[in-house]
Amino acid sequence: MTASLPRRRFLRAGLGTTTLLLGGGSGCSSSRREPIKFATNPWPGYDPLYVAREKGFFDEAGLNVSLVDLTSLGASRRAFERGQVDGCGATLVELLLAADQSGIRPQIAAVVDYSNGADVVIGSNTLAGPADLRGLRVAIEPGTLHIQLLALALASVKLTVRDVLLVPMPQNAMPAAFADGQVAAAVCFPPESNRLLEKNGKVLFHSGQVPGEVVDTLVFDSSFVARRGPEVQAFVLAYYRAMEFMEQHADEAHAIMARRENIDVAELRATLAGLHYVSRQEQRALLAPDGPVARSLDHLQGAMMTLAQLRQSRSLKDFLIARDLIAASGVAA
């Protein structure tokens, strides 16, 4: 999704869980409990969590939250699959892979943003567009939304991923690989995308050309939601409280976020221009059975099945999204 920050279970836990979540309000004791361990990678969509921590919103909600800083989406997903964290920031790619490869039941607590130009395919400035990638080496981080965006870029010129040479590497290794000529292009987002542009890179394709296709979510394990559903709801509400703070006190919030991303405020704001934060009020429509997330999931799943990255297909309802809970959170005070 935009600038160079790496991203990329509320779902049906059964009627009993939904009742617990909806009926329990915040349901949090004022005493500090076992931590909620939540993994994130650098990406502005998740940064309101750090605003919530710094401003004490988690504490005020009675939550003991441990934010686990990891370097990539893949690292966050692996920690989630291994049970090292209770939840993580994830794109739909991580959601599908976690469900397919680990047997856990990930549940989406909220969609936090969608990429609106932040995620990009960057190539040498000698390339005119995606069509020129045929036969060239393209860097992607395996198991991330990179494959989704690359497939979309190539499909726009009637190519497929089989028409390029995929070079797997962590996103933070891409600037050096590009500068050294090891790859002709890379799929990435800020801050690494900014580094590639500084090395005479050129944007060949961006997520703004496929609006609503690339989303970021807050995801929890279904067993955790079953045990501690009211805290998950309070966690999401603290996120949205941080979002409101960001709207009212942009300078202070952006300074917190920039420190988290290890970039300056100007670069952060440039990155924010490439994404759309999803409000509480937008959740119900976004997560409707025939809504944008369901359509995006189906589109992505088809590409991943073609690449043999998934063993079976799923629909959004298989992830048991508690849309009623999320909508209730959206109107909560």
Automatic annotation (TrEMBL):
Pfam name, any one: NMT1_2
Alphabetized UniProt keyword annotations: Signal
Gene Ontology CC terms, in alphabetical order: periplasmic space
InterPro entries tied to this protein: TAT_signal
Keyword set includes Signal: yes
Sequence similarity: Belongs to the bacterial solute-binding protein SsuA/TauA family.
Protein name, as recorded: ABC transporter substrate-binding protein
Organism: Zoogloea dura
